[in-house]
Write a structure and sequence with these properties.
heterodimer; A: about 325 residues; mainly alpha; globular; disordered C terminus; B: about 250 residues; alpha/beta; six-stranded mixed β-sheet; four-stranded antiparallel β-sheet; 12 strands
C-alpha cells in the first residue's frame, strides 16, 4: 500500500470548482433572469434589479455557505488531528449544538438588538465552552468511542435546553426563528451579517494554521509528540480556541449545520497521504464547495417550502458518518 | 551528554512509584534498565524526560534540570521511543521517520538539506529505503519497530531512550534492534533501553540498572548486576553465567 500526496493539485482543483460553484450560485435561482443580465450584474455592468438579486441576495448567500463550510470542515480536520480521531467534528462533538444554544438564548431574550456583535460573541462563547470541555476530557479518556460519547452528551444537553426554550417560546415568531437556527440555513444573509463574523473567522484560521505542524507530530500520540519537541498543551489551546472561533463564527451566520466537518476531511485524507497538517486546507475548501452545492440543491429542489441547508447536509452526511464509524470498527478489529 | 537521576522519587496518591533512585547513563554506553513489572522503569524514563514531575530529587539532561527545558530543547538533547507506538494516521514511512526532525522546525513538509540527509541515513540504517513510500498501516510488527527506531535515530540527538523497543518482536528482530542500539552507543550516543529479556540485555548492554519496587538495586556490568543472587532476589528466577552469556533455568 503506497501513500500518495496530491495536495497541490487537489487545492488548485478545489479552488477552481469552488469558483465555478460560487458563480453558478449567483447565476441560478428562483427569479428567472436571462443569463446575460446576471453576468453583466456580476461584473458590475447590469441593471439595478439584476444587481440587487445578484449582489444583495445570491452572492452573500453563496459566500455564507462557502465560508461556513470552510470553517466547519477546517474545524473538523483540526479536531480530528488533535484528538487523533476521524469521527471528531463540531457537529458530532456537540460544539455546534452548544454554540447554537447560546445564539438562540440571545435571540430569545432579545439581546441581539443590543449590538451586532452579540450574536457572533454568544455563538463563539458556546462553541468555546464545548471545545474547552472536550479538551479537558480528551487526555483522560484514551478511547475514541468514549470521547464521541462525551460529545453526544454535550450535544444532548444543548438540545435539551434548546427544547426547553422552544417549549417556553412566547410567540410563533420566536419559535420559527429558533427552528431556523436549529436546522441551519444561509437564506437571507447579507454581506453585513458576514462582516460581523469575519474577524472571528480569520482569527480562527490563523490559530489553526499555527497548530498545523503540531497536528502532524501528534500522529505518534501525545507523549511521543511531546518528546519530539511539541508543546502539546499549547497545541491543544490553539486548536480549541481556533475551532471554537471558527465554529462560533459559522453558527452565528448559519446556525447548526452538521457533518460537513466529517465528510470533507474524510474524502480529502487519502489524497494528501493521510497527513493531518496537509488535510486542513483542502478539507476546508471541499467543505466550502460541498455547502455551496448543497445550498444550491436546497434552493432548486421544487419542494413547497424551501429546504434548509442543515437538513440537506445532514441527509447526505449522516449516512457517511455511519459508514466511517462502521469501517473504523473493522479496522480496529484488525489490529 | 549524560542522562542522570539524582535521588529521584515519585509519589502518586500514596504509592511510591520511584524512591530515591540515582543513576547515570554516560555517552558511548548502552545501558539496560531492567526490573520486574511495576518496578518503576517507565516512571524513571518519563522522569528523565521531564514528562513525569518528581516529588523529590532531580533529573538532569547534560547537567541541565530536565524540567527547566522546553519540549523543543529536550527533543534536541534526547530522542525517545515510547512504549505506546500506535500511529493515528496511515502516513508514509518516510514522513513518519521525518517527524524525528520535528524539533529542528523542518517537519512541515519541507525538510532542510540536513534534515533530508538525517532521514535518508536513518532509513538506510534501519533497512527501510525500499519501504519509504509505503503506508505505516501496511507494515508488519517488525517493520513498524524499525520505523520507530529510524524515527528516533533521525533526530541525531546525543542521547536516546527506548522503552521496550523489542516488545512484540520475534527473537530475530529483537536482536536487530539491540544491535542497532549498540552501534548507536559505539558511535558515542548515551543509550538507555528498557528490556524485559534478561539474556538479551546481558548480551548487548554495557551496563545494567536494576530496579525493584521503585528502588535502585544495582547499577553495574551485566555479570555483576544480574548475578545469581540479584536474579533470585528481584525476579525469583535461577540464572547462571557461562562464557559471558546468561542462562535462565526456571523459578526458584
Amino acid at each position: 500500500m503506497k501513500v500518495h500526496n496530491h495536495a497541490s493539485t487537489l487545492i488548485v482543483t478545489l479552488i477552481a470548482f469552488s469558483a465555478l460553484a460560487l458563480a453558478a450560485s449567483c447565476l441560478i435561482g428562483a427569479t428567472p433572469l436571462p443569463m446575460e443580465r446576471l453576468i453583466a450584474a456580476l461584473i458590475g455592468a447590469g441593471d439595478p434589479q439584476a444587481e440587487l438579486i445578484v449582489w444583495e441576495i445570491r452572492l452573500p448567500r453563496a459566500f455564507a455557505a462557502f465560508l461556513v463550510g470552510m470553517a466547519l470542515a477546517g474545524s473538523g480536520a483540526a479536531l480530528q488531528g488533535l484528538l487523533r480521531n476521524p469521527l471528531a467534528e463540531p457537529g458530532v462533538l456537540g460544539v455546534s449544538a452548544m454554540s447554537s444554544l447560546f445564539a438562540t438564548i440571545t435571540i430569545y431574550w432579545g439581546m441581539v438588538q443590543l449590538s451586532p456583535w452579540m450574536l457572533p460573541l454568544a455563538s463563539i462563547a458556546g462553541a468555546l465552552l464545548a471545545t474547552g470541555l472536550l479538551a479537558l476530557v480528551a487526555p483522560r479518556v484514551q478511547s475514541v468511542v468514549t470521547l464521541v460519547l462525551v460529545g453526544v452528551g454535550i450535544s444532548s444537553l444543548a438540545g435539551a435546553f434548546m427544547s426547553l426554550l422552544i417549549n417556553l417560546a412566547p410567540n410563533p415568531f420566536t419559535l420559527s426563528d429558533m427552528m431556523n437556527w436549529m436546522m441551519g440555513s444561509v437564506a437571507n444573509r447579507s454581506l453585513e451579517d458576514l462582516a460581523w463574523a469575519a474577524p472571528f473567522w480569520f482569527l480562527g484560521v490563523v490559530m489553526i494554521w499555527i497548530s498545523a505542524p503540531g497536528l502532524r507530530a501528534l500522529t505518534f500520540g501525545e507523549e511521543a509528540a511531546s518528546a519530539l519537541g511539541l508543546d502539546v498543551g499549547r497545541s491543544r489551546i490553539w486548536v480549541v480556541l481556533g475551532t471554537g472561533l471558527l465554529t462560533g463564527a459559522a453558527v452565528s451566520v448559519a446556525g447548526a449545520v452538521g457533518f460537513v466537518g466529517i465528510i470533507a476531511p474524510h474524502l480529502v485524507r487519502p489524497l494528501v497521504g493521510h497527513d493531518p497538517a496537509r488535510t486542513l486546507v483542502p478539507a476546508a475548501l471541499l467543505g466550502g464547495l460541498v455547502l455551496v452545492v448543497a445550498d444550491l440543491v436546497a434552493r432548486l429542489v421544487p419542494t413547497g417550502q424551501e429546504l434548509k441547508l442543515g437538513v440537506v447536509a445532514a441527509l447526505i452526511g449522516a449516512p457517511i458518518f455511519i459508514w466511517i464509524a462502521v469501517r473504523r470498527r473493522t479496522l480496529e478489529a484488525d489490529q | 551528554m549524560s542522562l542522570m537521576l539524582q535521588g529521584a522519587s515519585v509519589f502518586i496518591q500514596g504509592a511510591h512509584l520511584l524512591e530515591k533512585v540515582s543513576f547515570e547513563v554516560r555517552p558511548g554506553k548502552l545501558v539496560g534498565l531492567l526490573g520486574p513489572n511495576g518496578a518503576g522503569k517507565t516512571t524513571a524514563v518519563r522522569a528523565l524526560l521531564g514528562l513525569q514531575a518528581l516529588s523529590e530529587g532531580n533529573a538532569y539532561l547534560h547537567d541541565k534540570p530536565a524540567h527547566s527545558l522546553t519540549a523543543k530543547q529536550r527533543a534536541l538533547q534526547v530522542s525517545y521511543l515510547p512504549q505506546m507506538r500506535k500511529l493515528a494516521w496511515p502516513i508514509s514511512v518516510k514522513e513518519a521517520v521525518a517527524l524525528g526532525r520535528f524539533a529542528y522546525g523542518g517537519a512541515m513538509g519541507r525538510l532542510s538539506p540536513a534534515d533530508a540527509l538525517a532521514v535518508e541515513d536513518a532509513l538506510g540504517r534501519c533497512s527501510l529505503k525500499g519501504l519509504a513510500d509505503r503506508s505505516v498501516a501496511s507494515l508488519s510488527g517488525g517493520e513498524l519497530a524499525r520505523v520507530h527506531l529510524a524515527r528516533a535515530l533521525a533526530s541525531q540527538a546525543p542521547a536516546l531512550i527506548a522503552d521496550e523497543p523489542t516488545a512484540a518482536l520475534d527473537p530475530g528482530h529483537s536482536l536487530d534492534v539491540l544491535a542497532a542500539l549498540q552501534s548507536q552507543a559505539r558511535a558515542g550516543q548515551a543509550v538507555l533501553v528498557v528490556v524485559h529479556d534478561l539474556a538479551l540485555a546481558a548480551r548487548f548492554c554495557d551496563e545494567i540498572i536494576l530496579l525493584n519496587q521503585g528502588r535502585l538495586v544495582i547499577q553495574d556490568r551485566p555479570e555483576d548486576a544480574l548475578s545469581a543472587a540479584s536474579l533470585a532476589d528481584v525476579y525469583g528466577v535461577k540464572g547462571t553465567w557461562s562464557r559471558g552469556q546468561l542462562y535462565l533455568s526456571g523459578r526458584i
